[in-house]
Amino acid sequence: MGDIGARNHVVVSGRTDGPTVMLAHGFGCDQNLWRLVAPALARDFRVVLFDHVGAGRSDLSAWRPERYATLDGYAEDILRICRELDLSDVIFVGHSVSAMMGVLAAIQEPQRFAKLVLLVPSPCYIDDEGYRGGFSRADIDELLESLDSNYLGWSAAMAPVIMGNPDRPELSEELKNSFCRTDPLIARAFARVTFLSDHRAELAKVSVPTLVIECAEDVIAPREVGAFVHAQIEGSRLVTLPATGHCPQLSAPEVTIEAIASFAAR
User: Fold this and answer.
1) Residue-wise over 110-145: b if at least 16 C-beta within 10 A, else e?
2) Could you say which of 54, 184, 236, 263 would form a disulfide bridge with 210 (CB–CB 3.0 to 4.6 Å)?
């Protein structure tokens, strides 16, 4: 699979003759977060999993602060994986911040992508005039400050907030452990890129069929954000899962699989 396969720990499974579904994980996670979704999709699709550089079993030595100072570096990695594997008509599924990486990649090389699935996306986490992102600038500064000063403590405090299923503590524990496996230096840089980026202006440039998936309750990407993304991407569809939290692929895998698979198969 070449350099990019090792660099991003690319794993391909499923039907070799099926349409290609590429699953991209969000901040502080790795491809393991798709473990409840990927096997079901692999029955009908070729599934491509990978870790962003700096996450999971990627090549940590490939991480460069200047390359990954914006989401463009990550979007370029996605395109490199597609080129290396000679993928076309890709159905790209991006979770959280990876949704915007997919948007950037699809604007750059629309011919590569058949469809985009944006799972709990947010183009901008900070509230603005006429826009609710869910956080004030002070909230985000405080979040980044606490992450800087005590990453493990931040992970333990934030995992239950992000996961949002207090009656299922094992889910928060899994997310916390995922955070704790991430190099703190890289996590701090990735958090800044994630929470301070603003890609609202790019949404209108998306030209491939797009599905926006939101959760009924999600403190990280509230319903107003899903509505905004849907309104900005012409012809997009919006599905609201009967799920809580920001990681429905873990907390509500069945409905997540159904939403992805039915759109991918259309």
Assistant:
1) eebbbbbbbbbbbbbbbbeeeeebbbeeeebeebbe
2) 236
Tell me the Ramachandran region of residue 159: left when phi exceeds 0, alpha when psi lies from -120 to 50, beta otherwise. alpha
Pairing of the two strands 11-14 and 46-49: antiparallel
- Can you give the pTM of this predicted structure? 0.97
pLDDT of residue 121: 98
Alpha-helix residue ranges (DSSP H) falling in the chain: 2-7, 38-41, 71-84, 97-108, 137-149, 151-163, 169-181, 184-196, 223-232, 248-251, 253-265
Residues labelled catalytic: 96, 218, 246
Overall residue count recorded for the chain in this entry: 266
Rg (CA), the chain: 17
Q: Is 240 helix (H, G, I), strand (E, B) or coil?
A: strand
Question: Tens of pLDDT along 163-206?
Answer: 999 999 999 999 999 998 888 999 999 999 999 999 999 999 99
* Cα distances (Å, whole numbers) of residue 135 to 26, 222, 225: 18, 10, 11
Share of the chain above pLDDT 70, in %: 99
| Per-residue pLDDT tens over the stretch 85-104 | 999 999 999 999 999 999 99
Confidence of residue 2 (pLDDT cuts 50, 70, 90): low
